[in-house]
Amino acid sequence: MSSQLDLDHPLFQRVSHWVNLINFLVLTITGFLIHSPYPGMPMNLVRNLHFIFMYLLIINGVLRFYYSFFGKHKDYGDFFFNKQDVKTTWPQIKYYLFIGKHPKTGKYNPLQKLAYIALPIMTIVQAVTGFILYRPEQLSGAASYFGSLAAVRGFHYLLMWLFIAVIAVHVYLVFTTAYEQFLFMFFGKGRKEKSVS
Ligand code: HEM
């Protein structure tokens, strides 16, 4: 699907993408440390960093969502699944399994779209579970939906691993099959070839 952009990644998208990377890095590292603290760790600092970056993640997500629909280079259409995506999903899987050719796709291929749709949904779930942990007294009713506060913690922790898995695949595919896209994400140059990651 064409987004009618003359740039692959306009400045706002690029800034938002790299801010997201920093947010996820800090949240993952501090999350790990909160989960498994070591003796003498500056717990307050680690927790406060987690709290600051969780707000940055949410603000960045809300701005990116707004931009997708109302920004100058709105690009929500690039992420929606269409009939062509349904047809090219299996060929795309075969391509990744090294048993087929890369199908003709729009700016993003169907598996890429699924990943890019999954990430904001996962972020919302992570924010909900995170806020239950942040305000356990006020949100004890919400915690009971998960069974207990301990279950919410476990869920928040497991979801971190899902983030790590999705982002690892994303990074692997960018560097193995679409290195130019990595440069475009930095410099926002015009599109020269289809992205395949
Ligand atoms: C908006 C999003 C988020 C909110 C509101 C949030 C909030 C929280 C809170 C309040 C805690 C408990 C801190 C404590 O008790 O000292 C926590 C722990 C944690 N967070 Fe987040 N967080 C968010 C995003 C993330 C992300 C994106 C990751 C990783 C990808 C992450 C990973 C973790 C981990 C691993 C823990 C430790 C859980 C445990 O104790 O087992 N969080 N988070």
UniProtKB/TrEMBL annotation:
It is found in: Cell membrane. GO terms for biological process: respiratory electron transport chain. InterPro entries: Cyt_b561_bac/Ni-Hgenase (IPR011577), Di-haem_cyt_TM (IPR016174), Hydrogenase_cytochrome (IPR051542), Ni-dep_Hydgase_cyt-B (IPR000516). The keyword Transferase does not apply. The keyword Transport applies. Keywords: Cell membrane, Electron transport, Heme, Iron, Membrane, Metal-binding, Transmembrane, Transmembrane helix, Transport. GO terms for cellular component: plasma membrane. Signal peptide: none annotated. Residues 9-188 form the Cytochrome b561 bacterial/Ni-hydrogenase domain. The chain crosses the membrane at residues 21-38, 50-67, 114-134, 154-175. GO terms for molecular function: electron transfer activity; heme binding; iron ion binding. PANTHER family: NI/FE-HYDROGENASE 1 B-TYPE CYTOCHROME SUBUNIT, NI_FE-HYDROGENASE 1 B-TYPE CYTOCHROME SUBUNIT-RELATED. Belongs to the HupC/HyaC/HydC family. This is Ni/Fe-hydrogenase, b-type cytochrome subunit. It comes from Desulfosporosinus youngiae DSM 17734.
